[in-house]
Amino acid sequence: MNRRISGMLLGVLLAVSSIAGCSSSQTDATTAKEEANTEKPGGVGKVGVAMPTQSSERWINDGANMKKQLEALGYEVDLQYAEDDVQMQVSQIENMIASGVNCLVIASIDSSALVNVEEQAKNAGIPIIAYDRLLMDTDAVSYYATFDNKGVGTAIGEYIKEKKQLDQAKAEGKSYTIEFFMGSPDDNNALFLYNGLMEVLKPYLDDGTLVCESGRTSFEDTCILRWSQETAQQNCENYLTGFYSDRKLDICATALDGFAYGCKSALEGAGYKLGEDWPLITGQDAELMAVKNIISGYQTMSIYKDTRLLAEKCVKMVQAVLEGTEPEINDTEQYNNGKIIVPAYLCTPVAVDKDNYQKIVVEGGYYTEEQLSQ
Question: Is the separation of the CB atoms in 70 and 313 below 8 Å?
């Protein structure tokens, strides 16, 4: 009898122990899951990031900043560069869709070539965010993160106006020569920049305060496919040879640091010298080399675009669309892509030159003194 009772008690104890063990295991699993979610506040998701090229420092920084910030939120990131090969970018995005990404961030090479693959993403329920280059002729894009591209052109134009004192020059009957090097015709941002620039400078072209000896002032005549530095250099060489044998070029109005590098090479080849007849040269992106050239005098200014901030705004858009909330937007009128007006967040561009680079890019933590002195 006692043996039987003892056996029953032992069975009860074993059962209780087993239940407690299961409960403990479940608690441990729940705790581990909660800890994992705590480590990854953004939750679960995979984001495809399609960048145009690694030939420009700014796109390398954009991709790195975005990847870092998305991964900090717990997202898996597939970052791809297409090296300005349109079909390669199409294939990369197709592969991202096939791999099951939950969101796409696209900085296009030629947005007209992406319409079909964007439709694939839409049909698969994958939201798309355009990054710094508007995606045209599609209703598959949800949001647009960029800098104020017309504002970039306006800032360049205002800088030229102020540095060359164009109003005073007009009053004195003085004139300056100028040539234009504008962005790629397949990049909608390039036209915005051109329009902003010409809003400031066209009156001075019309009244003769600014003289373009080549006569190439329209966007069609000054745009440079794929933002090619080599083409900018060749164009500048042709202008100097064909139109400036008897008169010096005073201003290279360029829309990109790479164009400024090309103009620098062309000017050196034509015998221009710092401190003597070196022209005012503008740029965009405040690349490390550009800031070094600004310090040395070979480039006059650049438009500083803090890619850390732009990446942050884009990452918040990704997080919002994947969590079903509304991202921060400050423009709902300007960016009509031919199908829809794309809600956008516009970051503010800043003109950087020898007088303020220290405060803006060094004290702002974008570059160090060591980087600029190497």
Answer: no
H helix runs in 164-187, sequence order: 166-172
pLDDT digits (tens, 9 = 90+) for 298-320: 999 999 999 899 999 999 999 99
Q: What is the largest CA-CA distance in the chain?
A: 123
CA distance 52 to 110: 9
- Residue 16 located in a structural domain: no
Contact in structure between 209 and 172 (CB atoms under 8 Å) = no
Q: Are residues 166 and 301 in the same domain?
A: yes
Spatial CB neighbours of 211, under 8 Å, sequence gap ≥ 6: 175, 176, 177, 178, 205
What local confidence, expressed as pLDDT, does residue 307 receive? 87
Q: Degrees (nearest 5) of the Cα angle 311, 152, 227?
A: 80
What's the pLDDT score for residue 19? 39
Which tokens in the block code for residue 294?
């600004």
328 secondary structure, DSSP code:
P
Looking at residue 110, the DSSP 8-state letter turns out to be -
DSSP codes, 240-298: HHHH-SSS---EEEESSHHHHHHHHHHHHHTT--TTTTPPEE--BS--HHHHHHHHHTS
| Whether residues 232 and 317 fall in one domain | no
| H-only helix segments in the chain | 2-39, 57-72, 86-98, 115-123, 149-163, 166-172, 188-206, 219-222, 229-243, 257-269, 288-296, 307-323, 357, 369-373
CA distance 205 to 242: 20
> In CATH, what number is assigned to the domain containing residue 269?
3.40.50.2300
- Confidence band of 24 (pLDDT split at 50, 70, 90): very low
Q: Which domain holds residue 108?
A: 46-147+307-346
